[in-house]
Amino acid sequence: MAHEIKNPLTPIQLSAERLQHRLADKLELADADILQRSTRTIVQQVEAMKEMVDDFSEYAKPSKKQTVDIDLSSLVQEVLALYALKSGVKFKADYEAGLLIINGDPVSIRQVLHNLIKNALEAVDAHGLIEITLHKVQKNNTDFIEIALYDNGPGIKDEQIEKIFEPYVTTKAKGTGLGLAIVKKIIEEHGGAIWIDTNRKVGAGFIIQLPASNSKQL
Prior knowledge:
Layout: H1 2-6, H2 9-23, H3 29-60, E1 68-71, H4 72-84, E2 90-95, E3 101-104, H5 106-123, E4 129-139, E5 142-151, H6 158-161, H7 179-189, E6 193-196, E7 205-211
Helix pairs in contact: 2-3, 4-5, 5-7
């Protein structure tokens, strides 16, 4: 279904870009400006449609995970390194000493981190701060690894908190509203939980708890 929806989108985008390329230097300045703005709108909306289809496919597809033991501190450092190189935003990380291991699908857990970090980056300005902490907690005689991610952006309104993980709910002007729904789905498939830190006074805070692996080493 997703493939059938996306098939006509690429020709639409390419046709718009071709019109811009072929006609831009043949039009009066005012008309060329209208063409450029119209083409940009078409391309942006096509990209938004592609993103929406991809997100819906990810949310709807059944879980087929390949689980292994994952050192969360190493995985988080790996993902953070990708964003630290590209943005002027400051990242602060604090990891509990020792191995912080879960049993899960690395691709899915990496996607969770990407989604949350991208949300945080969109919420802060160029001088923003994103903090991540990892440590072990115990609940009902079970060990969990807790990941907390905070930003110093505008935060989440009280009326949005209860529905923030529901499909098609978004606080952004642009977006599919599926990013956090996908995050919640992945975390729950791994036997964990995610929630908003309502004690946070500045910015937004997300807390994830995932069952710790019983393995002693990777």
